[in-house]
Amino acid sequence: MGRLRNLEPMQILGLLGALFFLTAPYALPLVVPGFWVNITAEIMIWALFAASVNLLFGYTGLLSFGQALYFGMGAYGVALSIEFFHFSFWPAALTGIAVATLSAFVTGIFAARLTWHYFAIITVVFSLIFFFFAVGWKDVTGGDDGMPFTMPPVLKVGGLELSLLDLTFQYYFILAVVGACFGMMHLLLKSPLGYAFIAVRENTARAGLVGYNAYMVRLLSFVFSGFFAGVSGVLFALFSRYASAHFLFWTVSGEGVVWAVVGGAGTLFGPVLGTAFLIVIREELSAYWEHYLLVVGVIVILFVTYAPQGIMGLLRKAIARYARPAAGDGRGARP
Question: Which of 55, 263, 305, 308 would bridge with 270, disulfide CB 3.0–4.6 Å?
Fold first, then answer.
C-alpha cells in the first residue's frame, strides 16, 4: 500500500488500464455481452496501428496518410505466406512483418526527404499505388473481396496444440504482442534516437547544428513506424483470418491519424485512449443509427478545436487541477 501511495496519478491510471486488459476475457462477460472481448482485442490491434502513426506525427513531426500501406503489407504478407507458400505460423508472421518493414524502408528513402504537406502527399501516393495494384491483381490478392486463409496452429508439440482459434488464447496472444511492441516503443523513445526524433520535430536546423542528420533520423522513424504498423497488420489478418485490398486504402491511414490526435499525439498511450474511445462510440452508435460517423466526425472536430492535446491532455489538466489544492494545504506537497 505504501508503494501505491507514492505513485503518480497517471501511473495509477496506467496500472488500472493494464489490469483491465489483463482481466477483460473474464471480467467483461460479467457486465456486457461477450462480443466485447473481441472488440477489446481489436482495440489493442488498432491502438498499435495508431501508435505507429503517432511515432511519426507526434514524435518526429511527420504527418503520414500512408500507414495503411505497411498495415496492408503485413496483412498480405502473412496471408499469402500461409495460403500460397504453406508457411507455418511463425515464419508467416515474421514474413508479414519483414515485408511491411522493407516496404517502409523503400518508401522512406523517398518520403523522408520531404516534410509538411509534401510528405503527406507522397505517403498517400505510395499507398494508392499499392492499393490499385492489389485491386487489379485479384487472382492473387482477392481484391476488394479479400482473401481468407486457414489458420495454422501457433505451437504444436506432441498432443499440445495452441491455436488462435481458441478465442481466449487469441486475446492473450494479441495482448502479449501489443504489450511487447509498446514496451519496445517506450525503450526507443527513451533512447538517444528517440530524443533525436523530438529534436528534429522541434527544429530541424538546430538539430543539424548539434550533429543530427535530419534525413537519417526521419528515415529511421519511418522504418520503425512501418515496423509497428506491419505488426498490427499481421495481428489483424490473424484476428480476422482475412486480408483485403481495403487494408491498403488511405482512409485506414486517416483513421489512425484521428485516433492518435484524439488520444493525444506525442504521448505513448494517447493512441490507446483515442482508439478505445472512438471504437466504443462507433460500436454503440452503429446499433442505433446508420449515420453514426457524423457524430464521430463532430467529436473529432471538437477535440481538434478545443482540446488539441487530446484525451491525455485533458486527463493531465484534470489531475493537475485536483493536485493543486492538495499541494496548497500541505498534504499533497512533495518533500
Answer: 263
Angle between helices 192-202 and 167-189 (to 10 degrees): 70
Q: What phi and psi values does residue 157 have, to the nearest 5 degrees?
A: -130, 110
Dmax (CA) of the chain:
71
Question: Within 13 Å, how many C-alpha atoms sit on residue 328's CB side?
Answer: 6
Measured CA to CA in angstroms, residue 157 lies from 87, 94, 163, 286 at distances of 17, 20, 12, 43
Q: Residue 36: in which H helix or E strand, if any?
A: helix 35-60
Give the DSSP H/E element, type plus range, for residue 89: helix 89-111
pLDDT digits (tens, 9 = 90+) for 142-192: 888 888 988 889 888 777 888 898 899 999 999 999 999 999 999 999 999
* Res 332: pLDDT: 45
Q: Supply φ then ψ for residue 147, to 5 degrees.
A: -135, 100
212 in Cβ contact with 43 (< 8 Å):
no
Q: Which DSSP state fits 64?
A: -
pLDDT one-digit tens code per residue, 36-54: 999 999 999 999 999 999 9
